[in-house]
Amino acid sequence: MSEIKKIGIMTGGGDCCGLNAVIRAVVYTAINKYGLECVGIKNCYRGLYLGESQMVPLTIDTVDEIIGDGGTILYNSNKDNLFKYPRRDKNGIVRDKDGKPIYDDVSHVAVENIKKAGIDALVIVGGDGTLTSGRDYSRMGIRVMGVPKTIDNDLNSTDQTFGFDTAINRNVEAVDCLKTTGRSHHRVMVFEVMGRDAGHIALHTGIASGADAIIIPEIPYDIVKIKDRVKKALLSDKKYSIVVVAEGAPAPDGKAVTAITQDFSPDGVKLGGIGKLLATTIENMLNSERDENGYAISEDILDVECRASALSHVQRGGMTSASDRVLCTRYGSAAIDLLMAGNEKHMVALRDNEMVAVPLEVVIPSNDIHGNFKPVDPNGELVKIAKNMDICFGD
Ligand code: F6P
Predict the structure, then answer these.
(1) Chain-wide mean pLDDT for the chain?
(2) Is 15 a catalytic residue?
(3) Which domains can be identified in the chain, with CATH numbers?
Protein backbone atom coordinates (compact mmCIF):
# COMPACT_ATOMS: atom_id res chain seq x y z
CA MET A 1 0.00 0.00 0.00
CA SER A 2 1.36 3.41 -0.94
CA GLU A 3 1.82 5.99 1.79
CA ILE A 4 0.60 8.63 -0.64
CA LYS A 5 -3.00 9.59 0.06
CA LYS A 6 -3.05 13.28 -0.76
CA ILE A 7 -1.17 15.15 -3.46
CA GLY A 8 -0.58 18.85 -4.05
CA ILE A 9 -0.38 20.23 -7.60
CA MET A 10 1.22 23.51 -8.62
CA THR A 11 2.29 25.32 -11.79
CA GLY A 12 5.33 27.61 -11.95
CA GLY A 13 7.35 29.75 -14.35
CA GLY A 14 5.85 31.48 -17.38
CA ASP A 15 2.55 30.00 -18.46
CA CYS A 16 1.94 28.25 -21.76
CA CYS A 17 -0.96 26.39 -23.31
CA GLY A 18 -1.49 22.93 -21.87
CA LEU A 19 -1.02 23.55 -18.14
CA ASN A 20 -4.72 23.04 -17.47
CA ALA A 21 -4.75 19.84 -19.50
CA VAL A 22 -1.88 18.55 -17.32
CA ILE A 23 -3.73 19.51 -14.11
CA ARG A 24 -6.83 17.73 -15.42
CA ALA A 25 -4.94 14.53 -16.25
CA VAL A 26 -3.21 14.53 -12.85
CA VAL A 27 -6.51 14.92 -11.01
CA TYR A 28 -8.37 12.36 -13.14
CA THR A 29 -5.67 9.72 -12.71
CA ALA A 30 -5.09 10.45 -9.03
CA ILE A 31 -8.76 10.27 -8.12
CA ASN A 32 -10.17 7.67 -10.50
CA LYS A 33 -7.27 5.25 -10.58
CA TYR A 34 -5.72 5.62 -7.12
CA GLY A 35 -8.47 7.18 -4.96
CA LEU A 36 -6.18 10.05 -3.90
CA GLU A 37 -7.19 13.43 -2.58
CA CYS A 38 -5.97 16.40 -4.68
CA VAL A 39 -5.15 19.91 -3.57
CA GLY A 40 -4.25 22.76 -5.91
CA ILE A 41 -1.63 25.19 -4.63
CA LYS A 42 -2.16 28.64 -6.12
CA ASN A 43 0.71 30.87 -7.26
CA CYS A 44 3.29 28.09 -7.07
CA TYR A 45 5.93 28.46 -4.34
CA ARG A 46 4.37 31.66 -2.97
CA GLY A 47 1.29 29.52 -2.32
CA LEU A 48 3.37 27.03 -0.37
CA TYR A 49 4.85 29.89 1.65
CA LEU A 50 1.46 31.47 2.42
CA GLY A 51 -0.13 28.11 3.21
CA GLU A 52 -3.79 27.23 3.71
CA SER A 53 -5.32 30.35 2.12
CA GLN A 54 -3.67 29.38 -1.19
CA MET A 55 -4.79 25.75 -1.20
CA VAL A 56 -7.95 24.61 -2.98
CA PRO A 57 -9.46 21.12 -3.22
CA LEU A 58 -9.45 19.77 -6.77
CA THR A 59 -12.13 17.33 -7.88
CA ILE A 60 -13.13 15.83 -11.22
CA ASP A 61 -15.81 18.53 -11.44
CA THR A 62 -13.24 21.29 -10.90
CA VAL A 63 -11.08 20.15 -13.78
CA ASP A 64 -13.48 18.44 -16.14
CA GLU A 65 -14.00 21.32 -18.56
CA ILE A 66 -10.51 22.80 -18.70
CA ILE A 67 -8.74 20.51 -21.17
CA GLY A 68 -8.57 23.11 -23.93
CA ASP A 69 -8.17 26.31 -21.91
CA GLY A 70 -4.81 28.09 -21.98
CA GLY A 71 -3.36 29.54 -18.79
CA THR A 72 -3.63 27.71 -15.48
CA ILE A 73 -6.46 27.62 -12.95
CA LEU A 74 -3.71 27.53 -10.29
CA TYR A 75 -1.89 30.63 -11.56
CA ASN A 76 1.83 30.91 -12.26
CA SER A 77 4.64 32.69 -10.54
CA ASN A 78 8.28 32.78 -11.60
CA LYS A 79 9.53 35.16 -8.92
CA ASP A 80 9.07 33.20 -5.72
CA ASN A 81 12.20 31.20 -5.08
CA LEU A 82 11.77 30.50 -1.36
CA PHE A 83 15.43 29.54 -1.04
CA LYS A 84 16.27 33.16 -1.90
CA TYR A 85 13.19 35.17 -1.08
CA PRO A 86 13.27 38.98 -1.11
CA ARG A 87 12.44 40.34 2.33
CA ARG A 88 9.44 42.71 2.42
CA ASP A 89 8.02 45.21 4.90
CA LYS A 90 5.27 47.82 4.63
CA ASN A 91 7.37 49.78 2.13
CA GLY A 92 7.90 46.83 -0.18
CA ILE A 93 11.24 45.12 -0.78
CA VAL A 94 13.80 45.68 2.01
CA ARG A 95 17.19 46.80 0.69
CA ASP A 96 20.65 47.10 2.19
CA LYS A 97 22.65 50.33 2.33
CA ASP A 98 23.83 49.83 -1.26
CA GLY A 99 20.24 49.48 -2.48
CA LYS A 100 20.51 45.74 -3.02
CA PRO A 101 17.52 43.58 -1.96
CA ILE A 102 17.97 41.48 1.17
CA TYR A 103 17.12 37.81 0.67
CA ASP A 104 16.16 35.10 3.18
CA ASP A 105 15.91 31.32 2.88
CA VAL A 106 12.29 30.66 3.87
CA SER A 107 12.02 27.19 2.35
CA HIS A 108 11.33 25.61 5.76
CA VAL A 109 8.01 27.55 5.92
CA ALA A 110 6.87 25.72 2.78
CA VAL A 111 7.86 22.35 4.24
CA GLU A 112 5.88 23.11 7.43
CA ASN A 113 2.83 24.15 5.35
CA ILE A 114 3.03 20.98 3.23
CA LYS A 115 3.02 18.89 6.40
CA LYS A 116 0.26 20.96 8.02
CA ALA A 117 -1.95 20.42 4.94
CA GLY A 118 -1.33 16.65 5.08
CA ILE A 119 0.14 16.65 1.56
CA ASP A 120 2.15 13.48 0.94
CA ALA A 121 3.62 14.40 -2.47
CA LEU A 122 3.86 17.37 -4.80
CA VAL A 123 3.34 17.38 -8.56
CA ILE A 124 5.29 20.42 -9.74
CA VAL A 125 4.77 21.59 -13.30
CA GLY A 126 7.46 24.03 -14.38
CA GLY A 127 10.63 24.89 -16.22
CA ASP A 128 14.19 24.65 -15.00
CA GLY A 129 13.86 27.36 -12.34
CA THR A 130 10.73 25.82 -10.83
CA LEU A 131 12.17 22.30 -11.00
CA THR A 132 15.44 23.40 -9.37
CA SER A 133 13.41 24.33 -6.28
CA GLY A 134 11.49 21.04 -6.71
CA ARG A 135 14.76 19.16 -6.58
CA ASP A 136 15.77 21.11 -3.47
CA TYR A 137 12.48 20.26 -1.70
CA SER A 138 13.03 16.60 -2.58
CA ARG A 139 16.41 16.92 -0.83
CA MET A 140 14.48 18.16 2.20
CA GLY A 141 12.43 14.95 2.25
CA ILE A 142 9.36 16.02 0.24
CA ARG A 143 8.13 13.56 -2.41
CA VAL A 144 8.23 15.38 -5.74
CA MET A 145 7.16 14.48 -9.27
CA GLY A 146 8.15 17.18 -11.76
CA VAL A 147 6.48 17.83 -15.10
CA PRO A 148 8.66 19.75 -17.59
CA LYS A 149 7.20 22.92 -19.07
CA THR A 150 8.43 25.54 -21.48
CA ILE A 151 6.93 26.97 -24.64
CA ASP A 152 10.49 27.27 -26.00
CA ASN A 153 10.90 23.44 -26.20
CA ASP A 154 14.53 23.81 -25.16
CA LEU A 155 14.85 21.22 -22.39
CA ASN A 156 17.39 18.48 -22.92
CA SER A 157 15.73 16.10 -20.48
CA THR A 158 12.63 15.51 -22.57
CA ASP A 159 11.94 15.11 -26.28
CA GLN A 160 9.10 17.62 -26.44
CA THR A 161 7.49 20.11 -24.09
CA PHE A 162 3.86 21.18 -24.32
CA GLY A 163 2.67 24.63 -25.38
CA PHE A 164 5.20 24.53 -28.21
CA ASP A 165 2.85 22.98 -30.76
CA THR A 166 0.10 25.47 -29.88
CA ALA A 167 2.53 28.37 -30.30
CA ILE A 168 3.69 27.11 -33.70
CA ASN A 169 0.11 26.72 -34.89
CA ARG A 170 -0.75 30.23 -33.76
CA ASN A 171 2.37 31.64 -35.42
CA VAL A 172 1.78 29.85 -38.70
CA GLU A 173 -1.78 31.14 -38.81
CA ALA A 174 -0.39 34.65 -38.26
CA VAL A 175 2.23 34.27 -41.01
CA ASP A 176 -0.51 33.06 -43.36
CA CYS A 177 -2.21 36.40 -42.66
CA LEU A 178 1.03 38.32 -43.16
CA LYS A 179 1.49 36.62 -46.51
CA THR A 180 -1.77 37.91 -48.01
CA THR A 181 -1.14 41.49 -46.93
CA GLY A 182 2.60 41.29 -47.73
CA ARG A 183 1.84 39.87 -51.18
CA SER A 184 -0.63 42.69 -51.96
CA HIS A 185 1.98 45.38 -51.27
CA HIS A 186 5.13 43.49 -52.35
CA ARG A 187 6.44 43.99 -48.86
CA VAL A 188 8.98 42.32 -46.63
CA MET A 189 7.22 41.01 -43.51
CA VAL A 190 9.48 40.36 -40.55
CA PHE A 191 7.83 38.20 -37.87
CA GLU A 192 9.34 38.04 -34.40
CA VAL A 193 8.55 34.99 -32.26
CA MET A 194 9.36 33.84 -28.72
CA GLY A 195 12.52 31.91 -27.97
CA ARG A 196 14.72 33.50 -25.39
CA ASP A 197 17.77 31.33 -25.73
CA ALA A 198 16.75 28.83 -28.40
CA GLY A 199 15.32 29.13 -31.89
CA HIS A 200 13.03 26.08 -31.98
CA ILE A 201 9.85 28.18 -32.25
CA ALA A 202 11.34 30.29 -35.06
CA LEU A 203 12.69 27.24 -36.90
CA HIS A 204 9.39 25.35 -36.84
CA THR A 205 7.34 28.47 -37.61
CA GLY A 206 9.60 29.35 -40.53
CA ILE A 207 9.59 25.89 -42.07
CA ALA A 208 5.84 25.46 -41.61
CA SER A 209 5.09 28.81 -43.18
CA GLY A 210 7.54 28.61 -46.08
CA ALA A 211 9.65 31.58 -44.93
CA ASP A 212 12.59 32.93 -46.97
CA ALA A 213 14.83 33.48 -43.96
CA ILE A 214 14.98 32.35 -40.32
CA ILE A 215 17.21 34.05 -37.78
CA ILE A 216 17.93 32.22 -34.51
CA PRO A 217 20.36 32.68 -31.62
CA GLU A 218 22.23 29.44 -32.42
CA ILE A 219 23.35 30.48 -35.92
CA PRO A 220 25.38 33.68 -36.25
CA TYR A 221 24.14 35.58 -39.31
CA ASP A 222 25.47 38.00 -41.85
CA ILE A 223 22.79 40.60 -42.52
CA VAL A 224 24.01 40.98 -46.12
CA LYS A 225 23.13 37.33 -46.79
CA ILE A 226 19.67 37.82 -45.29
CA LYS A 227 19.18 40.95 -47.38
CA ASP A 228 20.26 39.09 -50.55
CA ARG A 229 17.79 36.27 -49.88
CA VAL A 230 14.99 38.76 -49.31
CA LYS A 231 15.91 40.52 -52.55
CA LYS A 232 15.76 37.20 -54.41
CA ALA A 233 12.21 36.70 -53.10
CA LEU A 234 11.20 40.23 -54.14
CA LEU A 235 12.59 39.58 -57.63
CA SER A 236 10.77 36.23 -57.90
CA ASP A 237 7.21 35.75 -59.07
CA LYS A 238 5.80 36.03 -55.57
CA LYS A 239 7.36 39.51 -55.10
CA TYR A 240 7.17 39.60 -51.30
CA SER A 241 9.20 38.07 -48.52
CA ILE A 242 8.77 36.51 -45.09
CA VAL A 243 11.53 36.60 -42.47
CA VAL A 244 11.01 34.83 -39.11
CA VAL A 245 13.26 35.87 -36.23
CA ALA A 246 13.58 34.55 -32.68
CA GLU A 247 13.42 37.27 -30.03
CA GLY A 248 16.72 35.97 -28.64
CA ALA A 249 18.63 36.53 -31.89
CA PRO A 250 21.12 39.38 -31.59
CA ALA A 251 21.13 42.56 -33.66
CA PRO A 252 23.45 42.54 -36.72
CA ASP A 253 26.17 44.05 -34.50
CA GLY A 254 25.89 41.11 -32.08
CA LYS A 255 24.12 42.99 -29.27
CA ALA A 256 21.02 41.60 -27.53
CA VAL A 257 17.82 43.53 -28.20
CA THR A 258 15.90 43.98 -24.96
CA ALA A 259 12.47 45.44 -24.31
CA ILE A 260 12.55 45.91 -20.53
CA THR A 261 14.61 44.96 -17.52
CA GLN A 262 12.81 43.56 -14.53
CA ASP A 263 13.71 43.27 -10.87
CA PHE A 264 13.36 39.83 -9.26
CA SER A 265 12.70 38.03 -12.50
CA PRO A 266 14.94 34.98 -12.96
CA ASP A 267 15.56 36.21 -16.51
CA GLY A 268 16.36 39.81 -15.50
CA VAL A 269 15.78 41.25 -18.93
CA LYS A 270 12.81 40.76 -21.21
CA LEU A 271 13.60 40.47 -24.89
CA GLY A 272 11.76 42.09 -27.77
CA GLY A 273 12.37 44.45 -30.65
CA ILE A 274 14.73 42.52 -32.92
CA GLY A 275 11.96 42.23 -35.56
CA LYS A 276 11.56 45.99 -35.86
CA LEU A 277 15.29 46.56 -35.92
CA LEU A 278 15.78 44.01 -38.70
CA ALA A 279 12.88 45.41 -40.74
CA THR A 280 14.42 48.89 -40.68
CA THR A 281 17.90 47.56 -41.44
CA ILE A 282 16.81 45.40 -44.39
CA GLU A 283 14.63 48.21 -45.78
CA ASN A 284 17.51 50.69 -45.65
CA MET A 285 19.95 48.24 -47.22
CA LEU A 286 17.65 47.37 -50.11
CA ASN A 287 16.68 50.98 -50.81
CA SER A 288 20.30 52.00 -51.01
CA GLU A 289 20.88 49.61 -53.94
CA ARG A 290 18.88 51.30 -56.71
CA ASP A 291 19.15 50.75 -60.46
CA GLU A 292 19.60 53.52 -63.06
CA ASN A 293 15.83 54.24 -62.98
CA GLY A 294 15.95 54.77 -59.27
CA TYR A 295 14.01 51.55 -58.64
CA ALA A 296 15.02 49.58 -55.56
CA ILE A 297 13.87 46.25 -57.03
CA SER A 298 11.69 46.57 -60.15
CA GLU A 299 8.72 48.44 -61.64
CA ASP A 300 6.58 46.63 -59.07
CA ILE A 301 8.76 47.64 -56.16
CA LEU A 302 10.14 51.13 -56.63
CA ASP A 303 10.89 51.45 -52.93
CA VAL A 304 11.12 48.51 -50.55
CA GLU A 305 8.84 48.55 -47.53
CA CYS A 306 9.49 46.28 -44.57
CA ARG A 307 7.02 45.79 -41.75
CA ALA A 308 7.55 44.03 -38.44
CA SER A 309 4.94 42.05 -36.50
CA ALA A 310 5.00 39.98 -33.33
CA LEU A 311 2.36 37.99 -31.52
CA SER A 312 4.35 38.13 -28.29
CA HIS A 313 2.30 36.62 -25.44
CA VAL A 314 -0.53 35.73 -27.82
CA GLN A 315 1.69 32.71 -28.55
CA ARG A 316 1.18 31.58 -24.96
CA GLY A 317 -2.55 32.19 -24.60
CA GLY A 318 -5.90 31.08 -25.98
CA MET A 319 -6.96 27.53 -26.65
CA THR A 320 -4.56 24.58 -26.62
CA SER A 321 -3.89 22.62 -29.82
CA ALA A 322 -5.20 19.05 -30.10
CA SER A 323 -1.69 17.65 -30.21
CA ASP A 324 -0.69 19.52 -27.03
CA ARG A 325 -3.87 18.34 -25.27
CA VAL A 326 -2.86 14.74 -25.96
CA LEU A 327 0.74 15.36 -24.89
CA CYS A 328 -0.40 17.05 -21.65
CA THR A 329 -2.81 14.24 -20.86
CA ARG A 330 0.08 11.81 -21.27
CA TYR A 331 2.37 13.92 -19.06
CA GLY A 332 -0.20 14.44 -16.29
CA SER A 333 -1.43 10.87 -16.19
CA ALA A 334 2.08 9.36 -16.35
CA ALA A 335 3.22 11.72 -13.58
CA ILE A 336 0.78 10.02 -11.19
CA ASP A 337 1.43 6.49 -12.45
CA LEU A 338 5.19 6.98 -12.04
CA LEU A 339 4.81 8.64 -8.64
CA MET A 340 2.62 5.81 -7.37
CA ALA A 341 5.14 3.31 -8.71
CA GLY A 342 7.67 4.74 -6.24
CA ASN A 343 9.44 7.48 -8.21
CA GLU A 344 9.43 10.15 -5.54
CA LYS A 345 12.29 12.47 -6.55
CA HIS A 346 11.73 12.43 -10.27
CA MET A 347 10.49 14.22 -13.34
CA VAL A 348 8.32 12.63 -16.01
CA ALA A 349 9.95 12.86 -19.43
CA LEU A 350 9.04 11.92 -22.99
CA ARG A 351 11.83 9.75 -24.37
CA ASP A 352 11.51 7.90 -27.70
CA ASN A 353 7.73 8.28 -27.46
CA GLU A 354 7.54 6.74 -23.99
CA MET A 355 6.80 8.44 -20.69
CA VAL A 356 9.62 7.67 -18.25
CA ALA A 357 10.80 8.86 -14.82
CA VAL A 358 14.14 10.68 -14.69
CA PRO A 359 15.71 11.56 -11.30
CA LEU A 360 15.54 15.30 -10.58
CA GLU A 361 19.22 15.14 -9.63
CA VAL A 362 19.95 14.02 -13.20
CA VAL A 363 17.67 16.62 -14.80
CA ILE A 364 19.10 19.46 -12.69
CA PRO A 365 22.56 18.25 -11.69
CA SER A 366 23.89 21.57 -10.41
CA ASN A 367 22.64 25.03 -9.70
CA ASP A 368 23.36 26.01 -13.28
CA ILE A 369 19.81 25.84 -14.58
CA HIS A 370 21.10 25.98 -18.13
CA GLY A 371 22.64 22.51 -17.66
CA ASN A 372 19.39 21.11 -19.04
CA PHE A 373 19.41 23.38 -22.11
CA LYS A 374 18.73 22.00 -25.60
CA PRO A 375 19.55 24.49 -28.37
CA VAL A 376 18.74 24.07 -32.06
CA ASP A 377 21.50 21.98 -33.63
CA PRO A 378 22.90 24.17 -36.45
CA ASN A 379 23.98 20.97 -38.23
CA GLY A 380 20.83 19.04 -37.41
CA GLU A 381 18.30 17.56 -39.77
CA LEU A 382 15.73 20.34 -39.50
CA VAL A 383 18.21 23.08 -40.36
CA LYS A 384 19.46 21.02 -43.31
CA ILE A 385 15.90 20.45 -44.54
CA ALA A 386 15.17 24.16 -44.16
CA LYS A 387 18.24 24.94 -46.27
CA ASN A 388 16.98 22.49 -48.90
CA MET A 389 13.85 24.66 -48.97
CA ASP A 390 16.09 27.67 -49.75
CA ILE A 391 15.53 29.13 -46.30
CA CYS A 392 18.45 31.39 -45.49
CA PHE A 393 19.92 31.48 -41.96
CA GLY A 394 22.45 34.13 -42.89
CA ASP A 395 25.40 31.76 -42.36
O1 F6P B 1 10.74 31.14 -21.59
C2 F6P B 1 9.47 31.27 -22.06
C3 F6P B 1 9.19 32.67 -22.56
O4 F6P B 1 7.90 32.69 -23.13
C5 F6P B 1 10.23 33.20 -23.52
O6 F6P B 1 10.07 32.74 -24.83
C7 F6P B 1 10.03 34.69 -23.34
O8 F6P B 1 11.23 35.40 -23.57
C9 F6P B 1 9.68 34.83 -21.90
O10 F6P B 1 9.17 33.60 -21.47
C11 F6P B 1 8.69 35.93 -21.62
O12 F6P B 1 8.53 36.05 -20.25
P13 F6P B 1 7.44 36.96 -19.57
O14 F6P B 1 6.12 36.26 -19.67
O15 F6P B 1 7.89 37.08 -18.16
O16 F6P B 1 7.38 38.27 -20.30
Answers:
(1) 95
(2) no
(3) 6-162+320-363 (3.40.50.450), 165-317+378-388 (3.40.50.460)
